[in-house]
Design brief:
Elements (H helix, E strand, L loop, with lengths): L7 E2 L3 H6 L3 E5 L2 E6 L3 H10 L2 E4 L4 E6 L3 H6 L14 E7 L5 E11 L6 E7 L4 H11 L6 E4 L4 E7 L3 H6 L14 E6 L2 E6 L8 E7 L3 H12 L5 E2 L2 H10 L34 H7 L7 E7 L10 E4 L2 E12 L4 E8 L9 E6 L2 E8 L9
Parallel strand pairs: 1-3, 4-14
Antiparallel strand pairs: 2-3, 4-10, 5-8, 5-9, 6-7, 7-8, 10-13, 11-12, 12-13, 15-18, 15-20, 16-17, 16-19, 17-18, 19-20
Helix pairs in contact: 2-7
Length: 373
């Protein structure tokens, strides 16, 4: 076990250590990278239900009279038509169109007429940056910006039996909860916000609860998931799952040097009849045929391509790998990377330089994996 005395700890840290989690430094947090094996944890999620401690993600509350106008001036996705409980994936961009972070925005309105406003879930590595960015842009907007990260925990349950597991201890009937919507309810008798969201390509939910309640909720979920073949999942399998699902990861497929058009996340950009930071640069990027674009790659053989590996089209270097793994689902290497647009069409034969050897690869549509309906 690593010495993590200087790292931030989630409310579930003690459970991870006690149950054999191999702890690592992730964005300044002590987090479990795996418990058993990556493949076992990956397959448990694909076949049953995987439990993820995602309490390291930043959780912010934006409220006040101008909250909607304030966020609409900063987010690539419009929010003025969101209804209570709705969740949207969005981006925060800088003036050059580069991505500062990819986030989830929640429209919050509690049934008893209490707190109303917007919740933002941001990447752990970007939390302080986004808080600073919001404060810099506050200006004359009458808004509150409140970091609730350490007050709450966040648990994700994903997989074909995830709803079944959570439904057994949740007051709300979850099969009626629409995708990318959430509800304030009780989980294991504790007040929680449950949303039908996730980062694995599977169905499932994410639970935000008081930090003090997380241990009991987590344990109750584990007790119900394990007899079905599910269990806790670490960061390593979370990465193989999201890669199979073709989901970008900040610092790899998204960064301040990459715009939404290149990253193929234009679905999260609403340009019509609105202004926001980075809009003009994104419009310009839509017409740029020289910029590289994100693609999926399927490799021959067994050796996975790692981040930074050069991608070749014939003898020409046309890009680089940003994420790669050996897919537990398909039992072959897959990767994502950025290549010149002339080499980006599905079916294009390429090669990846892995330690000086050129391994044949082919551009394939994303995502690699889609769950059955």
């Amino acid at each position: 076990m690593n010495d993590d005395s200087q790292l931030l700890q989630t409310p579930l840290h003690g459970w991870h250590v006690a149950h054999g989690g191999r702890m690592v430094d992730f964005a300044g947090w002590s987090m479990p990278v795996q418990y058993s094996s990556i493949v076992e944890e990956h397959q448990a999620t694909r076949k049953a239900a995987g439990l993820f401690d995602i309490s390291h993600m930043g959780r912010l509350i934006i409220d006040g009279p101008d909250a909607q106008r304030f966020l609409d001036s900063l987010l690539t996705r419009r929010i003025d038509d969101m209804t209570p409980g709705q969740v949207r994936y969005s981006l925060v961009c800088n003036e050059t169109g580069g991505v500062l972070d990819d986030i989830l925005v929640y429209q919050i309105q509690l049934p008893e007429g209490g707190l109303s406003g917007y919740g933002l879930v941001v990447n752990a590595s970007n939390r302080t940056k986004i808080i600073s960015w919001l404060n810099q842009r506050r200006g004359s907007f009458d808004v509150g910006i409140d970091d609730k990260t350490t007050e709450y925990a966040m648990i994700s349950i994903q997989g074909p039996r995830a709803i079944e597991v959570l439904d057994a201890i949740c007051d709300h009937e979850l099969t009626s909860l629409r995708y990318y919507f959430g509800v304030m309810t009780r989980v294991a008798a504790f007040r929680s916000f449950v949303s039908r969201t996730g980062y694995t390509g599977e169905d499932g939910c994410e639970i935000i609860c008081d930090a003090a309640d997380a241990g009991i909720i987590w344990t109750r979920l584990i007790e119900r998931a394990e007899p079905l073949g599910g269990g806790p999942v670490g960061l390593a399998a979370r990465d193989t799952l999201r890669l199979e699902a073709g989901m970008p990861l900040y610092g790899h497929e998204l960064s301040e040097q990459i715009n939404p058009v290149q990253a193929d996340v234009s679905f999260a950009v609403n340009l019509r009849n609105r202004e926001f930071v980075g809009r003009e640069a994104i419009v310009k990027a839509q017409k740029d045929e020289q910029q590289s674009v994100r693609v999926g790659l399927q490799l021959e053989g067994k050796r996975p391509a790692r981040e930074g590996a050069v991608i070749l089209h014939g003898d020409e270097a046309v890009g680089a790998v940003t994420s790669g793994t050996f897919s537990p689902t398909f039992e072959r290497p897959i990767a994502m990377g950025f290549v010149k647009q002339t080499a980006s069409a599905p079916g294009t034969p390429l090669a990846v330089d892995i330690r000086g050897q050129h391994h044949p690869a082919q551009v394939v549509p994303l995502p690699f994996y889609q769950r059955g309906k």
